[in-house]
């Protein structure tokens, strides 16, 4: 019986058989590498969509309806009716004016003090870490505790501030009921809480400015003030812009300090609404008067005002850069 020789597999077929799984594995690896970054950032977009974008759109839709907190199932379309009503509401304009005044009284001194404090902490001195912790302590204090302490300090009859004023012959000030005194008192709380935080932000930015610039300016005979103006401030320009933006947003949303400072006044912001901010007015309309649609309109107006202010500031900055660039080109600055 003749043995039939076994048929051998050609080498090319073996190579092709091994290459096919290897090619599929390479393609799968390439797909994973291509889609992996999207998988890593997907949780952020999911959370942002659920807790950021959806509430924003839902609030905008609610602002176009008459919705009462006691009957959320009944939505009555009013279009721009809530916005028109707010435009004719004197309490809205009062809250807007109070927000602007308190924002200016708190933001400007706060950032100036923070810049000064950061410059002092940037100097090499003993116990710098201790002073930095002390500067950050007010930020770590809860808004409730800070406001209650300041309410005692600004008490009309037994407050420490009025006692200090009486020692120099100034009559006691009614800090809670005075139209300007109450705004100054609320602003003082904001300044105390946020100055240290902004000072540490400025301090971190100051330490990124190259020390060679200070040394070169000192060799040229520049004083310490001149080095601060011509070296430190230009290096801090992006950081200063950041703190201005964040402080402006915080001033627009101011809520806890005026609410707790008014003691029994609640969301009205004083007996005459003398320190009622937009945040308090929104809370009063939505959760006291139960007008959820009107409160949604206030929230969207606050957002639109911030976008308008920042858009105008960005446009002015772009135009200023364009003029400076044009002036630097020979023959274009005339």
Strand order of the largest sheet: 1-2
Query: Which ranges are low-confidence, i.e. pLDDT below 50, for 5 or more consecutive residues?
Result: none
Count of individual helical segments: 13
In angstroms, what is the radius of gyration?
A: 31 Å
Order of helices and strands: HEEHHHHHHHHHHHH
Q: Which sheet architecture does the biggest sheet show?
A: 2 strands, antiparallel
Total domain modules: 2
CATH-derived topology of the largest domain = MetI-like fold
Protein name: Sugar ABC transporter permease
Pfam families: BPD_transp_1
Main location: membrane
Organism: Streptomyces roseicoloratus
Write structural notes for this entry.
This protein has 334 residues and is mainly alpha-helical. The chain folds into two domains: 23-77, no CATH class; 89-320, MetI-like fold (Orthogonal Bundle). It has 13 helices and two strands. The chain has a two-stranded antiparallel ribbon with strand order 1-2. β1 and β2 form a beta hairpin. The model has no long low-confidence stretch (mean pLDDT 84). Residues 1-23 are annotated as: Disordered.
Tags for this model:
MetI-like fold; MetI-like; two-stranded antiparallel sheet; globular; 3% strand; 334 residues; mainly alpha
């Amino acid at each position: 019986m003749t043995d039939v020789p076994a048929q051998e597999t050609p080498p090319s077929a073996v190579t092709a058989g091994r290459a096919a799984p290897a090619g599929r594995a390479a393609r799968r690896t390439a797909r994973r590498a291509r889609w992996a970054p999207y998988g890593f950032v997907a949780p952020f977009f999911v959370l942002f969509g659920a807790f950021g974008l959806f509430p924003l759109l839902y609030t905008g839709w609610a602002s176009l309806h008459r919705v009462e907190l006691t009957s959320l199932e009944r939505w009555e379309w009013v279009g721009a009716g809530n916005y028109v009503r707010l435009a004719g509401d004197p309490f809205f304009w009062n809250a807007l004016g109070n927000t602007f005044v308190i924002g200016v009284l708190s933001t400007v001194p706060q950032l100036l003090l923070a810049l000064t404090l950061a410059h002092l902490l940037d100097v090499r001195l003993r116990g710098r870490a201790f002073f930095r912790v002390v500067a950050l302590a007010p930020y770590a204090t809860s808004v409730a505790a800070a406001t209650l302490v300041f309410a005692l300090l600004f008490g009309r009859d037994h407050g420490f501030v009025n006692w200090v004023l009486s020692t120099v012959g100034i009559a006691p000030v009614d800090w809670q009921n005075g139209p300007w005194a109450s705004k100054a008192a609320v602003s003082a709380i904001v300044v105390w809480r946020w100055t240290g935080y902004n000072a540490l932000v400025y301090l971190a930015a100051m330490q990124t400015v190259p020390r060679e610039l200070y040394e070169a300016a000192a060799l040229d005979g520049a004083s310490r003030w001149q080095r601060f103006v011509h070296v430190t401030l230009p290096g801090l320009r992006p950081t200063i812009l950041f703190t201005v933006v964040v402080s402006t947003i915080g001033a627009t949303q101011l809520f806890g300090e005026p609410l707790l400072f008014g003691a029994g006044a609640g969301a009205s912001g004083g007996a005459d609404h003398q320190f009622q901010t937009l945040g308090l007015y929104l809370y009063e309309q939505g959760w006291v008067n139960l007008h959820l649609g009107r409160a949604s309109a206030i929230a969207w107006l606050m957002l639109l005002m911030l976008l308008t202010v920042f858009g105008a500031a960005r446009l002015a900055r772009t135009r200023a850069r364009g003029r400076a660039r044009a002036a630097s080109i020979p023959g274009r600055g005339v």
